[in-house]
Design goal:
Layout (H helix, E strand, L loop, with lengths): L1 H24 L14 H10 L7 H21 L4 E6 L5 H10 L6 H10 L9 E6 L4 H8 L3
Antiparallel strand pairs: 1-2
């Protein structure tokens, strides 16, 4: 048992000596930080060269207020469409989505069909009359026309 312990201790000492030699013989890596004083114009030109757009605080506030007013006017212009339809036996998802597209309830028939397929609503289409609005999300429409 003693020879094994001595061999283990000799291995530890050898490893420690090898690490110490490596530590003392390697040069420390020094990274030099150079601080450069830049004027506002230099900073702006450097940012613009990298593809950024620099605006003043007043320009940014003007831009935001214009965006908000444009969004408000779009909301006022958008009217809510209401559509009632009968879903007949054998109605396919394609026919239903085309009806909804023509009534301006959805914007993209293919996207609605994909949503119905991916979320497993298309198998549960319920026969009967349904009333939908253009404010409804795909999920709300799907829940209205299915029994899932």
């Amino acid at each position: 048992m003693k020879p094994w312990i001595r061999t283990y201790a000799l291995g530890l000492i050898t490893a420690a000596v090898a690490m110490a030699i490596t530590f003392w013989n390697t040069e420390p890596s020094v990274t030099e930080v150079v601080e450069e004083e830049m004027s506002e114009e230099d900073m702006i030109s450097k940012l613009e060269q990298q593809g950024y757009q620099v605006v003043t605080k007043e320009e940014w506030q003007d831009f935001q207020s214009k965006q908000e007013s444009a969004d408000d006017s779009k909301k006022r212009e958008t009217s809510v469409n209401t559509f009632s339809t009968d879903i007949a036996p054998g109605a396919t998802m394609d026919k239903i989505s085309q009806k909804l597209l023509q009534a301006n309830i959805i914007e993209d028939a293919e996207a609605f069909e994909i949503f119905m397929e991916e979320n497993d609503y298309s198998r549960y289409i319920q026969i009967g009359q349904v009333t939908l609005t253009s404010e409804m999300s795909h999920k709300e429409i799907a829940e209205a026309i299915t029994s899932k």
